[in-house]
Amino acid sequence: MPNKINWPEAIKPLLKKYKGKQHPLEYKNVYQLIVMVVLSAQDSDKHINQIAPKFFEVFPDMKALSKSTPELLLKYVSDVRNFGNKAKWLSEMAQKIKDDKNIPFTLEELTVLPGIGRKSANVILRESGKEPEGVIVDLHVVRVAPRLSIASGTDPKKIEKQIMEVLPQKEWDAGMAMSFLGREICRPTNPKCEICVMNTVCVFYNENRKSR
User: Which fold has domain 7-20+135-211?
Assistant: First the structure.
């Protein structure tokens, strides 16, 4: 991985572009955020936004969810990818937390909950306005980070570690910024490189431009 780029400096235009932008999940509070983050794994945010209102009508808070069972939840999540496990995880998680006021806000406490890995925990911390303890690495970041050359490989945990090593903690929101960039500009096919704020340092763009 090239080390010539001063990443704390180079990442600034990207952070500026997406500063404070809310995650695409349309949640109204932290309880809804946690549920939607669990449901959205390997599914689309758009799909989860569509099914969420009906789910939250029946289960408006953690207390209501804790009284449910995986079998009851299936009715509301049956068209979500991996719905069987997700119904089980949500039920177990709610029984552990019991009340909205008990929702934890550290990476360590969040990642021991069923259905919540590092990426999900990092999203929850970001959207709750907490100090970042890691970097959000979703499928978009797995594509964008190696293209930029800020990280290499395809393992989300290794990519997260590499980004954390080259950026100070106050700039760890670069993960979510790269996710937005991947959704809007740095698409899998036909990326809009010409209008990308990162094209001056992007290895993918500069190598492709040379080869034309």
Answer: Endonuclease Iii, domain 2 (1.10.1670)
Per-residue pLDDT of the chain (212 residues; tens, 9 = 90+): 445 899 999 999 999 999 989 999 999 999 999 999 999 999 999 999 999 999 999 999 999 999 999 999 999 999 999 999 999 999 999 999 999 999 999 999 999 999 999 999 999 999 999 999 999 999 999 999 999 999 999 999 999 999 999 999 999 999 999 999 999 999 999 999 999 999 999 999 999 876 65
Q: Measure the CA dihedral 54/60/64/69, to 10°.
A: 30
Domain 30-127 fold is: Endonuclease III; domain 1 (1.10.340)
CB under 8 Å to 84, separation ≥6 — which residues?
A: 70, 74
Question: Whole-structure pTM over 0.90, yes or no?
Answer: yes
Helices (H), the chain: 7-10, 12-18, 30-40, 45-58, 62-66, 70-77, 83-97, 107-111, 118-127, 139-148, 156-166, 174-184, 203-211
Q: Is 15 in contact with 173 (CB distance < 8 Å)?
A: yes
The amino acid at 212: R
CA 86 vs. chain centroid, Å, equals 17
Contacts of 54 (CB under 8 A, 6+ apart): 76
